[in-house]
Amino acid sequence: MSYLIELLGGELHGADIVISGVASLDQAGEGQISFLANPRLRAQLQSSSAAAFIVRPTESAALDRPHITTRDPQLYFAKVAQLLYPQPVAVAGIHPRAVVDDFAIVAASAQIGPGAVIAAGAKIGERTIVMANAYIGEQVEIGTDCLIHPNSSIHRGAFIGDRVIVHSNAVIAGDGFGNAWAGDHWEKIPQLGRVLIGNDVEIGSCTTVDRGALSDTVIGNGARIDNLIQVAHNVEIGEHTAMAACVGIAGSTKIGARCQIGGAVMISGHLEICDGTTVLGGTLVAKTIREPGVYSGSYPMQTHDEWRHNAAHLRHLDDLAKRIKQLEKELRHTQLPVGESE
Fold first, then answer.
1. DSSP letter assigned to residue 62
2. pTM here?
3. Which of 50, 121, 152, 342 could form a disulfide with 139 if both were Cys (CB 3.0 to 4.6 A apart)?
4. CB 108: neighbour CB atoms within 10 A?
């Protein structure tokens, strides 16, 4: 544990034991370290079988086992986990069953796995790993130290920065949903823009990031995009914004930096969400957000019978509002002094 202190800081309390793994409070055992970030889980701290803990200084006095104190236990835990479980390191070379076009440029230190396809004009940076069956399209540029997981597809004209992770079955720079109604059928609008992804971005499994229609779709440095998210054409996502699974973002919406978007949030098109905004899970964002804060548009869970009764009232809400206005008008009229009128 003293090695962790040397690398990451913090203060060691108790024996300097060897840590071989990390785990949650309720699952940790011999040789594993866990952390307490939520005071409501303090009871689990006492009952945990972990060999050591990461806690705030305020929790130290109650612990008689080895522990590290730090201001942000969750962040410290993340860094410990990174040390113990590092990302794969590229083994330089192109697998014999990979297909690499003669006009592609692959860095000598990059690793290209079996079944991967690297199309003409694509550029793969130093120490980047393209895993099995991934597709890298024409004119795609991928920076250094990236990790492209199996079966992901990155289509023509995408530009990806350094240290980017793209998980399995993600689709980057597929066509956006552009169609014009011709009276009796749809005419496809060619999608001519690109996708620009900054440094240190992570794209989850089965997430789709559509290319721009005319201008570009942009994801800023350090953004975190979870699984099963739809990013439509011309969307812009600011630096270090994080989105949980199943978010849907319609076209041309701009989301600021350092935003937190909860799971299953639906965001309409052509809106702007300012820097530092938090949107709680399940919310429908149908208008621009100009002031940072916490926003929610979802009802708390209730029984089905309660929902039916409330829904019935909501159907008549407009009629009820009109009746209240009429009653207020009649009440004011009856309260007017003699000889006066409205």
1. G
2. 0.89
3. 121
4. 8
